[in-house]
Amino acid sequence: MMTALIRYTLATVIHSQRYLAPVMVFVVCVATASGSNQGPLPGVYAVNSGALLACAAWLSIAVISVEEPAHRAIAIVTAGSAVRVLIATLVTDCLVLAAMALGGLALPLLMAPHSITGADVLVGALAHLMCGTTGLAIGLLCSRLVFRRQGYAFLTASACVAAALLVSGMPPNTLFKHLANTGHGDTVLGSTTALATTGPALLAAAAVATHVISTRKD
After folding, report:
1. DSSP codes joined into one string, 12-48
2. Which residue ranges traverse the bilayer (predicted)?
3. Nearest to 93 by CA among 212, 153, 175, 9
4. Which pLDDT does position 37 carry in this prediction?
5. Which of 5, 69, 131, 179 could disulfide-link 53, Cβ–Cβ 3.0 to 4.6 Å?
6. In the chain, how long is the greatest CA-to-CA distance?
7. What are the φ/ψ torsions at residue 161 (nearest 5 degrees)?
């Protein structure tokens, strides 16, 4: 059942093409940063993961908005559970996010000369994981399942993304500072690993909160 539901959700998202805007904006940001920055690789990955956070929030909102409420209600009845539909949406988000993260990791290696180490790439992967899942969590909490008025959702999502990126002490902001101030990934591998766990944890919490809120509203 879940495999068929995920395939249906993925096919619906691909057919709607609503994923294209956040994906293309991310590719442009990464290509610009990667082509013009020949400095240490962790610093480049800091910029790319920041762009991924913002675009992942956009992606999450776009994927949930693909289906009208009536169509989503039919999907819930067919699947037998609102939880299953939400999980299928999250898996679809994560599949698109994984492709975006791979682009964020690979393009800097292809577009400019860098001194590459395994630690640099691992740190970059962890940064993309943390920022990507944080962005999905923000988008989920600001989606139509929680906010009925899209204007409020947009303002809230923008404020949350800006806070995550710019407010000192927030995990993404702390991560960016660590990566930007080092020339070697192995020096920040421990701190990056610790920070990376906050993203998936936030996404899990956001999924639970979204389910509870949407269920009560329905």
Report:
1. HHHHHTTTHHHHHHHHHHHHHHHHH--S-HHHHHHHH
2. 45-64, 85-109, 121-140, 152-171, 191-213
3. 9
4. 64
5. 131
6. 53
7. -65, -45
Kindly state the DSSP code that residue 68 receives in the 8-state scheme: -
Instruction: Please say if the pLDDT value at position 38 is more than 70.
Output: no
Matching residue, tokens 């990464």: 30
Percent helix, percent strand, percent coil in the chain, to nearest 5: 80, 0, 20
| Residue 29 tokens, joined | 């940001």
Task: Give this prediction's pTM.
Answer: 0.92
Which residues, including other chains, have CB under 8 Å from residue 187's CB and lie 6 or more apart? none
Does residue 208 carry a pLDDT above 90? yes
Residue of 111, 143, 121 lying closest to 29 (CA atoms) = 111
Nearest to 5 by CA among 76, 60, 73: 76
- Degrees to nearest 5, angle at CA 29 with 24 and 35: 120
